[in-house]
Amino acid sequence: MTDIKSMTLEELEQEMEKLGEKKFRARQIYSWMHEKLADRFEDMTDLSVALRKKLAENYVLTRLEPVKIQTSRIDGTSKLLFRLSDGNAIESVLMKYHHGNSVCISSQVGCRMGCRFCASTLDGLERGLTPSEMLDQIYQIQKWSGERVHNVVVMGTGEPLDNYEALLRFLKLLTCEGGLHISQRNVTVSTCGIVPRIRQLADEKLQITLALSLHASSQEKRRSLMPVANKYSLPEVLDACRYYYEQTGRRITFEYSLVGGVNDSAEDAQELARLVKPLHGHVNLIPVNPIKERDYVQSKHAAVVGFKNKLEKLGINVTIRREIGRDIDGACGQLRKSYMDTEK
Ligand code: SAH
What we know:
Layout: E1 2-3, H1 9-18, H2 24-34, H3 49-58, E2 59-60, E3 65-71, E4 78-83, E5 89-97, E6 100-104, E7 108-110, E8 125-128, H4 131-145, E9 151-154, H5 164-175, E10 187-191, H6 195-203, E11 209-213, H7 219-225, H8 228-231, H9 234-248, E12 253-258, H10 266-276, E13 282-287, H11 301-313, E14 317-320, H12 334-343
Helix pairs in contact: 1-2, 4-5, 6-9, 10-11
């Protein structure tokens, strides 16, 4: 059955014609799904009973079911585990900031990128999420919290640029009028650095922020942490970032997870500054969140602060990611993994 929540308004209009319905019905249904966040066709009360029945017979209305919700007692961050219709599970996070509510969503079930410190990739890739499954993480969280979502970051499980077509459609539905209408500038997509896709995304000329997971300032070190670097070298990735900046005017965020004794020395900071300076990028430092399957350790607090100061002295705009949700399996993929492991 067709996934109606992944359709654009134009496609929905064509569907209505096929069903022998008036074109304006499409706008009503679209609003029910993407504005009023209806979970069932029967709730779409300004449609005739006959049409609601016809819709239920011909389409599926994606609805993620929250199966576990953990809220941090330290900072109020909530992590939600959703069950998908095929029995898979994914996780999403709601973070409350002064400037608004931010939701971090997954883009795939599992991941095939193999980054050494990441829990999401330990069991490989199951499948990409559909646009409606990406959207519904946000919709269900907005409904559950009763508060509007202002920012969306595609930084949960999965590599968004490895699910490119679905990602683009998701971005369109999320930011267009007639839906939640979140501003493109309030959306961030994080990638491990799939070069041809970064260039393709640049050509779409969207106003979203691109975050690049850099994590090392030399090709050799980056390769040891991120297998994707074997395919796309550091200079190639940085070139693609420059291209993104030129095409869109949007500054890149460089994510850098600090791993104790691996990439947190003064020389690492110096080299990092040299790389990102010409790109006018912003560096976001993430003290690595240790996972039990790997023996990476967090940098000492002094090393984190030293690293930040060094970058600042070299004129780089830098922030340390607030460590949130440590008490609720905060690292990417941890909650899902522990859930799936106990289900097995
Ligand atoms: N696949 C995308 C988005 C998912 S991960 C990407 O690679 O960017 C979001 C960010 O968290 C990435 O920068 C990722 O490298 C980082 N990350 C994953 N696991 C982590 C961990 N255990 N500790 C710190 N950062 C981690």
